[in-house]
Design brief:
Blueprint lengths: L21 H16 L12 E6 L5 H12 L3 E6 L11 H8 L5 E5 L3 H10 L4 E5 L5 H15 L7 E5 L4 H9 L6 E5 L8 H13 L4 E4 L2 H5 L4 E4 L11 H8 L6 H4 L6 E4 L11 H4 L6 H19 L20
Parallel strand pairs: 1-2, 1-3, 3-4, 5-6, 5-8, 6-7, 8-9
Helix pairs in contact: 1-5, 1-12, 2-12, 3-4, 5-6, 5-12, 6-7
Length: about 325
Amino acid sequence: MNDSIPTPFPHHDLLSLASWSGEDIRRTLELARTMKADPAAHKNLLAGKRLALIFEKDSLRTRFTFDLGIQDLGGSAVYLDHRHERLGARESVPDMAKNLERWVDVIVARTYRHRHVSELAKHARVPVINGLSDLLHPCQALADMLTLSEKWGDDMAGKKFVYMGDGNNTCHSLLHAAPKLGMHMTVCTPEGYEPNFKVMETARAAAAKNGVTLEHTSNPQEAADGAHAVYTDVWASMGQEDETEERAAVFHEFQVNETLMNLTNNAYFMHCLPAHRGQEVTAGVLEGPNSIVFDIAENRLHAQKAVLALLLCTPKPDPSSTQATSTVINA
């Protein structure tokens, strides 16, 4: 029985992995693996804790895995559907935070605007977790890294990790994570669809600190050469539906198919889902022997359970206190 997390965690929210060290990420992955191996050992860890799920966007994996995750740890969840009314429209985000902190112990927000999840964290006295924003998707990146750690072991140093497609929120969080775990990373996007400049600069600094390379190219074949893992995402994310046809034409050469995968070092194929067969990836690759997409989906549950446990193990400073840690995110 292990219903305690003895060592305080240095973070009180999860808005971004930019400020997390490699050790912070490894500690989260280690706890996730422990919880996955023996779920019953932690079944009362968060007994009585309540989770608020505030979602502006549709969700399968994020909603289910956080709801089930808090239940697995002894707590409960309440879902707030904001898909038809944006945060801040009926009531200010600070007021929402100050209400929710009186009722729940942790908040997960899936928002269009990253500033809204940051604003919740700034004003709430309980941990706030970014379940996806237009800028970042940190929970996805943790599940991705957890899955690779299961395949490769703790030492990922020297592996070549390739992200292919749109430089979007998932790409940004992978940039925050992969170099800190010792992986060489290549981002391959069409011109004009590169990752956020500040995110790239932060990732370059982390890569330099960890002695690994971070490259950007618009040549898919060059990027795939020798890769140990190839990751892609949809070409048009939620909110970009009106750009679907335009993006399909632009991204056509960036499809992950059998020809491209043959250039790799027997690479694993990764995708955050949902996937569109015949667009960003062929059915043969998605359903092939090297695809680990459903392992990743499963590991959303375990990675997020670890995040919940770690964030709730140390009281969050009162936002009004001068001792409170700033939650302003510089990507």
